[in-house]
Amino acid sequence: MTGVAGAGAPHPFAIRDFRLLWLARFSASFATMAMIIVLGWQTYDLARSDYGYSIGGASFLLGMLGMAQFVPLFLLTPFAGWVADRFERGRVAMVADGIDLGIALILGLATFQDWLTLPLLFLLAALHGVARVFIGPAMSSIAPNIVPAGSLPRAIALSSIAWQSASVAGPAMGGILYAVRPDLAYWMACGFLLLAICALGPIRRVVPPPMAQHIHPIRQMIDGLTYVRGHRFLLGAITLDLFAVLMGGATALLPVYARDILHVGAEGLGQLRAAPAFGSALVGLYFSFRPLKTNVGVKMLAAVVGFGIATIGFGLSALTPSQPLNLPGIGPILRLDMAVALGSLAFVGGFDMLSVFVRNSLVQLHTPDAMRGRVSAVSGVAISASNELGEVQSGIAAALLGPVGAVVAGGAGAALITLWWARIFPELRNARSFDPPNNI
Fold first, then answer.
1. 317: which of 46, 106, 149, 323 is 20 to 30 A away, CA to CA?
2. Is the pLDDT of residue 8 over 90?
3. What is the pLDDT of residue 191?
4. Of 309, 330, 223, 317, nearest in space to 271 by CA
């Protein structure tokens, strides 16, 4: 495979199956992002109002909510990757979306009838982690089988736009609907998850290559980890995200900022949660028209450093005056501290999108199809570990350093780790293009 970004490759949206896959990914992401933002708010607010937790204690609880989602991801990832390489991938994604649909129904009923408790929220967060561990490898492994290799970098950018644009609209709509009536966000999520399931149905079957029958399934699951460990390029790319985002997990503390620092409530929380996705969507849209072609490794590393610096900027927004921001001829439109927070988070998302675009393209194109499900599972657990364990790290750091200190320290840690990774994994900074090795 050469010239993967060839000019003669068809646009991914010219392919019906990719359009359906894009719709399914957008719909499922929209639903789950709306659910997660409300779930986090309800956990923090319930802990503060009904259970009497302090700000530090409730912040720590948000970290534990991330842990509840991570544990099933960590335990089931090898099995989920094996499932994606053993069974029809579209059907696997449909079943996982169905689990999330059930979670949304329960949350909607519990919110409507006012019988939410912290144990119930933690249980449903863990079940959501179970669903996510199967969705990731299955969905990620479909695109390389339904678009030509030359269209894949653009398809990955468009898939990222689906996720990121849903991550803009989902939290914003979830916060607005929650303010109108708390259960409405979950009923909306049910509708979009049902749409995702319906969109996956007509996609042509993506059956993985047959596995060797004489190899035990457990051995086949372990092969994904072994393959990544044996390829330093993949190992460096996947672990970079794990450790950098693990340190810079500022989004876990957004409920704290919204409720007790910026004082903007649930609707403001939706805006804060949407800001990173807005920046990501803009960058992803740009790459869908003008994909990167040269010096992709250095650009990925620089983007992760920028991610850390932007995270520091968000943390310091708490120290910005809360005076109204006036525009000539228009008047006050936004408080200055909220404007700094939203702008910094938009840069967090934009830099993250750049690094994700490069990393996902390189990982997919450097992995043979027979291993894509298992390698995607390893990559998925690293991403989930960085997100969910990042929430744990942020919660613990907030309890010790305060929310502002935790965010600033995490952003600095992400930048420093990236500089170290550039040194110990020269394969990353030496990646010049998306062309895979000749043996893939």
1. 46
2. no
3. 96
4. 317
Instruction: Work out the burial of residue 218: count CB atoms within 10 Å of its CB; fewer than 13 is exposed, 13-18 middle, 19 or more buried.
Output: exposed
The model's pTM is 0.66
Indicate the average pLDDT of the chain.
Answer: 80
Q: Which residues contact 330 (CB under 8 A, 6 or more apart)?
A: none
Distance CA 219, CA 85 (A): 13
Q: How far apart are CA 178 and CA 185, in angstroms?
A: 6
**Plot region of 94 (φ>0 → left; ψ -120 to 50 → alpha; else → beta):** alpha
| Count of CB atoms situated within 10 Å of the CB of 321 | 9
User: Is the Cβ–Cβ distance between 109 and 349 less than 8 Å?
Assistant: no
Alpha carbon of 214 to those of 86, 218, 307, 321, 327: distances in Å?
14, 12, 45, 66, 70
Count CB-CB contacts under 10 A for residue 159: 26
Instruction: Give the C-alpha distances (Å, rounded to integers) separating 100 from 30, 91, 104, 312.
Output: 12, 14, 6, 33
**302 contacts 296 by C-beta, under 8 angstroms:** no
Beta strand 331-335 with 324-327 is: antiparallel
Which tokens hold the place of 363? 């990982």
Residues 122-137: b if buried by 16+ CB within 10 A, e if exposed? bebbbbbbbbbbbbbb
Looking at residues 224-246, what average pLDDT do you find? 75
Instruction: Put residue 292 in one of left, alpha, beta given phi > 0 → left and psi -120 to 50 → alpha.
Output: beta
- Of 70, 140, 129, 126, the C-alpha closest to 96 is 129
C-beta separation of 65 from 394 below 8 A: no
Q: Cβ of 194: how many Cβ atoms within 10 Å?
A: 16
Q: What is the pLDDT of residues 248-275, one digit of tens each?
A: 667 778 888 888 888 888 778 878 888 8
Residue 235, CA atoms < 13 Å, CB-side half-sphere: 12
| pLDDT tens, residue by residue, 72-104 | 877 777 677 677 777 778 888 899 999 999 999
Q: Which fold has domain 14-429?
A: Growth Hormone; Chain: A; (1.20.1250)
Domain boundaries, the chain: 14-429
Instruction: Compute the chain's Rg from CA coordinates.
Output: 21
